[in-house]
Design goal:
The complex is a heterodimer of chains A (about 210) and B (about 180). Chain A is mostly helical. Among the domains of chain A are: about 60 residues; about 50 residues. Chain A is about 85% helix and about 0% strand. The termini of chain A are far apart. The relative contact order of chain A is 0.02. The model of chain A has no long low-confidence stretch (mean pLDDT about 85). Chain B is mostly helical. Chain B has one domain. Chain B is built from eight helices and four strands, in the order αβαααβαααββα. Chain B starts with a helix and ends with a helix. Classes of the chains: A mainly alpha (about 210), B mainly alpha (about 180). Chains A and B meet through α11 of A and α2 of B.
């Protein structure tokens, strides 16, 4: 009888180790597939049970009892007491997830459609009419006119180079227009006066003149 | 196309190109009167401002009646010099006073060149002479071919229209004296 070390050594030499490893791998894959099938069946069965429970009369009654009980009030108070919403919102805000959600919502065509419907609705028109006809606008305008900041802003705008340049250009343009009209009329007046004077003295017309 | 054939024919026959005579469009009496009125208003306005400022300064000092008379005489001479200098300077430099610029007319020599100061001075004197007989010196503008008044006869000048473009407006009208040559 050979010692155990000799047996192991020979097994190594004959590739028995490789076969052993292959066997282990097969077994583990088989186990995994059996386990997956079992888990899948168990999960589907569980979901079927949940569906049956949710759709049952018992669930409806349970829900009604829960809703009518003081549990909801207590839950609400606890949410407020432990600042659950704040604790949920804080990481969302700090991570920028809220901004991304808002941006995505604003970029969606649904928001455009909604805004269009709101603006075109008779309710919006009524709201605008009420704002215009109501005292709010008058008070706002009155307060605006009474504020010194407004007149300061008007002064700044009126003295801005762009505005003064535009006014100057407009004035020059108007003066040019008037001067052009005077010139045109003076040319015809020259000809008329000359024509009348020459006719008076029975002199011929100037060469090249009509 | 006709002009091209004409050029070819002239080159073949060795004929010189035709001389195209163009004359400037001369300004009439009304245009020149408006320009003169604008200049007169400007000259008087500046003179009035200067006179008022001078009178204000002089009023600070005690001035006797005789000195006052002398100052008035000096003011009159200064006004005369101012008027002569105004017209002489503008006519001999750009050929246009501000009134002329407004009405787009220019005073030039008969040959189209600029006026020399002495001719401009002579023209100012001519204007004065034309004014003396109740403005009768300007009447020849209505009857002469190139619309020249007494001052133009004296200084050998004409007044032409100069629209916005730098060249005076030309009208294809033959000049009588050139055609006679």
């Amino acid at each position: 009888m050979s010692p155990p070390s000799r047996v192991v050594g020979s097994a190594w030499e004959d590739g028995a180790e490789e076969r052993a490893l292959l066997g282990t791998s097969h077994i583990s894959r088989l186990g995994a597939s059996i386990g997956g099938a079992v888990v899948g069946r168990a999960g589907r069965g569980t979901l079927a049970v949940i569906d049956a429970v949710v759709e049952s009369q018992f669930a409806a009654e349970a829900s009604e009892r829960i809703m009518s009980s003081g549990l909801i009030d207590r839950v609400g108070k606890d949410i407020a007491r432990f600042d659950v919403i704040g604790r949920i919102a804080e990481p969302l805000v700090s991570s920028g997830e809220i901004d991304r959600l808002v941006d995505r919502a604003l970029e969606s065509p649904a928001v455009d459609r909604l805004a269009g419907r709101i603006l075109e609705s008779p309710a919006a028109e009524r709201l605008v009419v009420r704002v215009i006809e109501g005292p709010l606008l008058d008070k706002t305008v009155q307060r605006l006119l009474e504020s010194e900041d407004l007149w300061l802003m008007v002064d700044v705008i009126a003295q801005s180079p762009a505005v003064t340049e535009a006014i100057g250009r407009q004035s020059i343009g108007f003066a040019d227009q008037v001067a052009g009209a005077v010139r045109a009329r003076s040319v015809s007046a020259d000809d008329r006066l000359e024509f009348a004077a020459r006719r008076l003295l029975r002199r011929p017309k100037r060469d090249g003149k009509p | 196309m006709t002009q091209t054939w004409e050029r070819v024919a002239r080159r073949v026959h060795g004929s010189p190109p035709p001389v195209v005579i163009t004359v400037p469009e001369y300004a009439g009496l009304v245009t020149r009167a408006i320009a003169g009125a604008v200049d007169a208003a400007l000259v008087n306005a500046i003179a009035a401002i200067v006179a008022a400022a001078t009178a204000l300064v002089i009023s600070v000092f005690p001035v006797s009646h005789q000195i006052h008379t002398v100052l008035v005489a000096i003011g009159g001479v200064a006004f005369f010099i101012w008027v002569v200098a105004y017209f002489t300077t503008f006519w001999s430099t750009t050929g246009q006073t501000p009134g002329n610029r407004l009405m787009e007319i220019r005073v030039t020599r008969d040959d189209g060149g600029p006026l020399k100061p002495r001719w401009a001075l002579l023209r100012v004197i001519g204007v004065g002479l034309a004014v003396i007989p109740l403005f009768a010196g300007f009447l020849p503008i209505l009857f002469t071919e190139r619309r020249r008044g007494l001052q133009d006869w004296l200084a050998d000048t004409v007044v032409v229209r100069v629209p916005r473009d730098p060249q005076p407006s030309m009208r294809a009208v033959p000049r009588p004296e050139l055609l006679e040559q």
